[in-house]
Amino acid sequence: MHAEAYVEDDPVIIQARLRSTEVGVTPIGRGGGSVLRLLTAAVDARGVVEIGTGTGVSGMYLLNGMRVDGVLTSVDIESEHQRLAREAFNEAGISSNRTRLIPGAALEVLPRLTDGAYDLVFCDADKSEYVEYLDEALRLLRPGGVVVFDNALWHNRVADPAQRDPDTVAIRELGRVVSENPGLTSALLPVGDGLLVAYKRQ
Fold this sequence. Notes:
single chain, Rossmann fold, 8 helices, 7-stranded mixed beta sheet, alpha/beta, 202 residues
């Protein structure tokens, strides 16, 4: 797909993708990653929360779009994945004071983060918890901030009403909740496996 090939990955991201394959993690694609980088740059992000560290692929896209003094706070239940992400960040020459990797379940960690202190929240973890992640994201975001959900099309299952597995139902419910929230301006972008993007109105 041309949109996926439009932006080339740098060698460090390519290596992080290889690590993802080794540990059974599916990272965001090149097209989705380039959108993350664009969005963080567009909101001049200084503080970003990532739910689902993986091996650092999405984190590097986010960091590449953030301000040079920006800090990425990334949460993942797998500490081994975070160790691999830290390796990738080191290889990319990213200063250690620009990343805060917190191991643990997202819904236990997120309530400890500061209200209204973040410019962007990226969610790519347990699909069944996506609606709860939205609630946390809206609390964490400043007015004018952006929340992004990966896998919003979920392998084209979300658009098929016959698909009723728990993850598909949860992502479908997320789309409904976002679209009906008067405080959000949203779009579903058909890049990669789908990115649901919502802007928190000022």
